[in-house]
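Same chain as my last thread, 298 residues:
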Amino acid sequence: MAAVSTTTPRGTPGTDPVTAEPPQTGHALLIGASRGLGEAVARHLAATGWQVTIGARSADRLHAIAAELTAAGGQVHAVTVDVADADSVAHLFTAATERFGVPLGLVHLAARYGPFGAVSSVAAAEWERTIATNVTGTFTVLRHAARVMGPVGRGRIIVLSGGGATAPQPTLSAYAASKAAVVRLVETFAREVAGSGLAVNAIAPGLLATDMLDELLAAGPEVVDAAFYQRMVTAKATGEDRTPDAVAAIDFLLRTDIPGLTGRLIAAVWDPWRQWQADPSALADPDAFTLRRQVPGP
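reply #2:
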């Protein structure tokens, strides 16, 4: 496989170029695949030639999706997993590897909103459960990815972030805090595996018309920030759904080898990622598409 060489500016995410070509197809491990964006990604990958292991907590729905896609000619294997349970994640990686070999692509989309309401009023146990799923779950997945995928010398990892990572989210403190943590974890992990052939990025998918949107609307304006709630009401009424953009961005990140494209937070809707194959100059900025503290200019 051809190596990519580039001069990497000091502080560039990953600190070293990715040194192996990305897979065009192969085995992709997809976590959080039983609904919404995860299901859409599963359908896309199965239809475009990937062998796909899909994981989620919802066993009945997960196996129904696998059966449907297999009947349509795909190669899809379902494994029930709870990312908050380290043993469950270990079993997922073992079962996936035994079925289709070491994954060359990993898409981790499992997440939850968590409790709605002000910091002073939400239940601590629910807040901690959100951190366990969104942050510790991501840590556990990346830990296994390093051990299983790292030795192969090539692979692409995409982790779900969200708008909560980049701006305050009143009444969604667990979600916002966890998503910021996920992005910084991705940035840190990308540097740890620099030179291994793994590229690791986070993705903000944009607004998705999923069960999580319905969950937020059901909570009501009494406990959800009023401006954010109204934005979601409008999105629901107009049928706004950025799932196609998110699926396309994930496909791009799985199949693309661009120097510097690791340790980044990519907004599927707003960032010009479609242009980077022809012109990757935006990625020469080590702070572009990352979480960084802003300071006043001179």
